[in-house]
Design brief:
single chain; alpha/beta; seven-stranded parallel beta sheet; six-stranded parallel beta sheet; 13 strands; about 15% strand
């Protein structure tokens, strides 16, 4: 049994994929028999209990200094860059000789580096550079992210483990009757990196008959107002709707009501919503800024450039298909997710990586 501390900026699901994936990883590691404690910078670690089928995960509260005082962990697994608590965590692990695995969670991708660039340059110089370089292992969720890490650190051998996904228990999808309105769904943060302005432009060009576009997610940096203005200017209020964040049964209802999923992001280190959509039997359109080439290789979606014209082309192809074909593509994607991203197998890969870091704690 390994004593593990998993830290995350937040476990509030509306904050994006890592809130779900790190919480579920904790539960899956608990189910394997490990002694797991979780902590969140915003105090939301209690939410992991709802994501822990093992019922064994412990929740730490207080500041990171209070959590670390007097405690002893075999491994610390931190998730994400740029927050000051990471510096305290890195210092503690160096002082105590505790191996630290750092999941960079997309934060070394070019788009992320350039977003609020001056703040990140200061943080990099003050604490983040040393924090990255002193980590025993750097974890990436996709090949592209491995490449970005190695561009900066050619000697490092990043750990590549995908995010896991829950496979919902659901009846097989059936095609919608001819003439019934179909829905294309985006579910994620309402944020510029998600490429939603491109998506609205593509929708305006195409205006597919018999389709509506549903955008679901929390507003960040006031971007929803900009998007609503763009929708109104294009005269698309009748075919594009925006809803706030959804989780649990409400989120599942959006997946169940849809025929197609869209993730037009400029960049994603993984794109947990694409995996969720596939698990719910939906074909997916996403961009080459995400690690989802399998959509094309396995015939369960479209993987195109993060450009308006390319997204419009994929939309045209998808919305022209009969619903029976979309249902078949979604079934293929659901089977792929079940074979490749089920949580027990993902947790075992991490457990093996922790054991390796304990045996050889120097940065690798």
């Amino acid at each position: 049994m390994t004593r593990l501390l998993l830290t995350n900026p937040s476990f509030q699901l509306e904050h994006g994929g890592p809130a779900y994936s790190v919480g579920r990883l904790a539960g899956a590691l608990g189910a394997l028999g490990h002694d797991v404690t979780v902590w969140a910078a915003d105090g939301s670690a209690e939410r992991v209990r709802a994501m822990d089928p093992s019922g064994s995960v412990k929740v730490a509260t207080g500041t990171i200094g209070e959590v670390l005082t007097g405690a002893r962990w075999d491994v610390v697994h931190d998730n994400g860059l740029w927050l000051p608590y990471g510096a305290a965590l890195a210092r503690h692990c160096r002082a105590e000789g505790i191996p630290r695995l750092l999941s960079v969670r997309g934060m070394m991708q070019p788009w992320a580096w350039n977003h609020r660039r001056w703040k990140k340059r200061i943080a990099w110089a003050l604490y983040q550079k040393r924090g990255v370089e002193s980590a025993a292992r750097l974890h990436a969720t996709a090949d592209d992210e491995v490449g970005k890490i190695r561009e900066r650190y050619p000697a490092r051998r990043p750990l590549l483990v995908a995010n896991g996904i829950d496979i919902p228990d659901m009846a097989a999808r059936t095609p919608k009757p001819d003439g019934e309105m179909r829905t294309a769904l985006f579910l994620g943060r309402i944020h510029p990196v998600k490429g939603l302005a491109m998506l609205v432009d593509a929708w305006a060009q195409l205006r597919p008959a018999g389709w509506r576009l549903q955008l679901v997610g929390p507003d960040e940096d006031g971007f929803r107002a900009q998007l609503e203005a763009q929708i109104a200017a294009a005269g698309l209020e009748d075919s594009i709707a925006i809803a706030g964040p959804a989780s649990g049964d409400a989120k599942r209802a959006f997946y169940d009501a849809s025929s197609l999923f869209l993730l037009p992001s400029y960049t994603e280190n993984f794109g947990i919503s694409a995996a969720e959509a596939l698990a719910h039997g939906l074909p997916v359109i996403t961009t080459t800024g995400t690690p989802w080439q399998v959509l094309e290789t396995d015939g369960c979606g479209w993987w195109v450039a993060p450009e308006t014209a390319a997204i419009a082309g994929a939309l045209a192809a998808a919305t022209a298909l009969p619903d029976a074909r979309l249902v078949a593509m979604g079934a293929t994607g659901r089977a792929w997710v079940a074979d490749n991203l089920h949580w027990p197998a993902i947790a075992k890969q991490f457990a093996d990586a922790y054991a390796d870091a304990i045996a050889s704690p120097s940065p690798a």
